[in-house]
Design goal:
The protein is mostly helical. The longest helix is centred in the middle third of the chain and has 18 residues.
């Protein structure tokens, strides 16, 4: 995960301010119902994007509140900032 992936997930779920896991789940459920492939507005791609965003952010917050700003992200996950440079 890098900050761009993180920010894309935040934008996908429409997060504007501090949020806990309960609030994240509420946002996810509203969007997943709206974009479920079986609904009129539904889309497989959008539904998949919402699920991926939810799983990424759920892993990130783990029962804590964060402001979703870049500095806080880098403070919480400093080891992820250079993951592309890791050798395999």
């Amino acid at each position: 995960m890098d900050y761009d992936d993180f920010q894309k997930a935040v934008d996908c779920l429409g997060i504007l301010t501090r949020l806990d896991q309960k609030g994240l789940r509420k946002n996810y459920l509203q969007l997943s119902k709206k974009y479920h492939p079986d609904t009129l507005e539904g889309s497989d791609e959008k539904f998949k994007e919402i699920n991926e965003a939810y799983n990424l952010l759920k892993t990130y917050i783990e029962n804590y509140k964060f402001s979703f700003e870049k500095e806080e992200f880098l403070g919480q996950y400093p080891s992820f900032t250079n993951y592309k440079n890791w050798s395999r």
